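With this grant's support, we have settled on a layout for protein records. A representative record follows, to show the layout.
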Amino acid sequence: MTPPEWTIVDFIHHGPWWRNRSIRVLNLLLVLPLLTASINGLDSSLVNGLQILPAWKSYFRDPSGKTLGLISAAQVIGSIVGLPFTPYSSDNLGRRPTLLIGAMVMLAGVAMQSAATSIGMFIGARGLIGFGLTFALNAAPLLITELAYPTLRGKMTSMYNASWYLGSIVSAWTCFGAYQGAGHSPWSWRVPTLVQALGPFLQIFFIWFVPESPRFLVAKGRESKAAKVLAQYHSMTGDERDPLIVFEMAQIRHALKIEKEAAQKTSFTTLFSTPGNRKRMTIIIALAIFSQWSGNGLVSYYINLVLEGVGISDAGTKAAINGALQVWNLIAAMSGALLVDKLGRRTLFIISNVGMLIDFGAWTLTTALFNTLDNAAAAKATIPFIFLFYFFYDIAYTPTLIAYTLEILPFSIRAKGFAVMNLVVSLTLAFNQFVNPWALDALGWKYYLVYLGWLIIELVFVVTYVIETKGRTLEETAALFDGEQQPQVLMQTGGEAANLSMNIVARGPGIWIEQEKSTVTDVVELRTSDSSHIPPRISDRTMSQTQSMSMSRYEEDELSEHSQSRIICEAV
């Protein structure tokens, strides 16, 4: 296959993203869906923090055992109930309306939770929050992945899940502050629950400023709207004929066409209907399980029991350790998010699993020494091992679980595949939340040996099956699983479309003539004066041959089918 004369690296913005106004505005708008992970972090960490507060325990008569497990699992149960509906909402209503629905349901749940007068009402509110949260969790990362600027997609999607810890930090320190300020008053636990309303409130009122996913718009036949969205936020000139926009639109169209030919109607069975899809789902399901069964669930949801297991019983001390751990987690997770395009996804997963295995072994040893020999030094050493364990966990599983899942799924099954990932996470969470407190009571430190053996299995799987995806567009990454030729076909399609756009100038609706590349009407800079920062093209052309290009705006709806297919180099 002849390599394309132009590739995406020829048209992307080079230099700091904050110097490009379009990217600045887009990244600011993407903060709103990014908030979803923080909302999740706050809500998921809340019960962990409330367990430390004496007022919450006394108000609800010191719940423990199965009751405590049900309180912790109520949010997950609500999520599982909502999961079957979320991909259909995202695929039919759109990513943005689905996010709005989730925010509205969550806000109702928060109101009910903060006003709870019984344990049953509290559990019901947790379930309602989980039901709304699962809609937002399905739509938000899809919107980020499909809307982000190409060179920032990996970082933005990785930062999405890493921002989970922003919410957990707010939860931990709000509980600590409420305890310090309100002591044994019921407001010491009602205030942290009220804080949960802030995120959904912001999303309800500002989601209207966030554009819909261009890939969703193309899939629904609204190509003109998709081109306008991409031109507004990806082009430096706002021109729909910018070669980058033409490149992206061509790849999106071609990828959707291939997917429709492969499966005229998609369902959950489509996720396992082809060898490529089965390989995708095997990796996705495995990583989803690993994300919750690596030992992190012990501290994430039952830090009170873990700390008491090494002799730390003061409520203030436990709250401070919990708050410091969340700050540490955020730093580690954001560091991993910034490294995804430098080290790669596979490398981060391997480093993470090796580090967790070694550290968890040391953590198990110190806990065993304290419980069997009452060794005070071992108890003190356990705390830094917990922090070190989370460093290794957070550099890979926190930022890349969702990013990697969405990258390897093609558009037609992305929402459904992502829903399955969320379902697996929810089921493993529910297992953790029911089994962990019982197992810790029954087995003590010996329960840690189960996780130690499981970490060995995780490492073998990651080394064997996880493949690298960095340096590819969303469509090219998804095509990696469908045979070696598929990524090349997508690169060829986008490159040829962009190459043709370099030679075409519009003179009236639907009328195109060939021009020299040096012709200038609306100048779009493709190169900076410092060529050392620009990746070489596949072609052998010199930079002096293509310093600038000319293009005029066109109205896509006015193009004939023949002209349109010619521009995007896609045979209908």
The radius of gyration is 26 Å.
